[in-house]
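Our preliminary data section would be incomplete without showing what the modeling component actually yields. Below, a chain of 376 amino acids is followed by its predicted structure, encoded as tokens that our downstream tools consume directly.
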Amino acid sequence: MTITPCVCLVKFQNGSFDGNGEFAVVAPKSGGKKQALVKAGGQFYAGELKGGEEYDTYVCIRDKETGKMHIIPVEQALLSNHVYKKLEREKRKAPLLSREHANMKLLKEFGGRKASRYVDNQEKMVVNVDVVRQDLDETVKSSTLRDQEEGQEEGNESLGDVSATNEEYLASIVPKFDKEATNLDRVFLPEDVVGSALLDRLEEEAKMIHAKAATTLPFKSDYLKECVARIQSKGIASKQDFLHIKLIIYMDALRNLISLRSRQIQKAELSGITEKVENDIKRRFADPNLAKRGARTNYTTEKALTHFIVLAVLISDKKEVDLNVLSQALATSKDRIKQYAHIVNVLPKSRSDILALRLPSKVPALKTASRFKRKM
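Predicted structure:
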């Protein structure tokens, strides 16, 4: 008995072989494992050649003329279509850039200054978790300090009635409204609070906000993110929904202005979405009586407060907002918010912390409240 060169026993995955095909054994020059290859009907089947896991397999062939027996070792190969192997390689191959990373790269390369800054902030948040923790700590500290300062101011200042002189000041910090309105929808109009020209220019930003997950938006206020999420939950957005998103973008910048620690607003970043809103607020909310342009005074903060309260009511279907939510979003005491809400016709419901818009004709005169006058 002699041992002759190896033969192969092949098995096909997900199919059978009718014998019409070409067979070959491929052995790499580097000395790697041999592969069995079968071409049949325009398809390729390949598999690794290997012996049995528990037993070696042989076949015995008898030569009729000489009567000699030949024992031939058999190697086995499980063949599968090359398509499966190609799919496996594709799964193992990591994409160069995910869709999110590709969008970020496009924004950074071809976007404006605001887009590049937004991408940088997103990358920092992903890479370093400490940035988030530090930002939260600073927010808590600044909120605590601001509440303490406001408490001291309210304690030191005597309360008085709104005088004729103060009414002129109130008119400069309160959005335009219809004193003779008989319908709540006509008291404040969005174009009077924000401006129709700016609202028309925010169409693309509103669509971008609606298409993006609310949790990933560059809003520091959870309240504003929840407002966007509520609109997104409706599915198909209406024209009114996109208008509300535009107002929310403006509210985000107002909130950043209210919480600003610096006395200079010209170089401050107020909006993480667009410079259109940022530039508009810096122009409209700067104190007009100061020679130094771009300085933040109490006038700036008080005007931003009244506008934020009005916008919070306008984006609500019921024309109302929770006082506790506003207090947390603006890091401002509830008493102070109620005082400024009163001068924009927003009053608390009976035995409730819900602030609701009222018709100007039904709002009682402002009695004892903080002195609404210009304070430098």
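The chain has a mean pLDDT of 79. The CA atoms of residues 147 and 275 lie 29 Å apart. Preliminary results of this kind motivate Aim 1 of the renewal.
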